[in-house]
Fold:
Amino acid sequence: SIGDQLARWTNDIFKSTVHRAINRSGVRRYSIPLFFGTDYHVPIEPIPSCVSAERPPKYEPIVAGDYVKKRLQEMYHQNSPPL
Structure:
């Protein structure tokens, strides 16, 4: 998600939240998701002002398309049998 990418850009200064859409009200409602992200060729690496000697980078740089592919594999192929 863009929140996960923002966490990487800010070296975890901003954290991504867990996304849940649970209706506990008992009243019917509509949920309309909005999805957007970066272009796949954009590098995701910490913003220089979010890195210091006391706060070294927590993540290796990665291109957005590779990051999305990696996350999809983690989410949807974690229980798949080996090929």
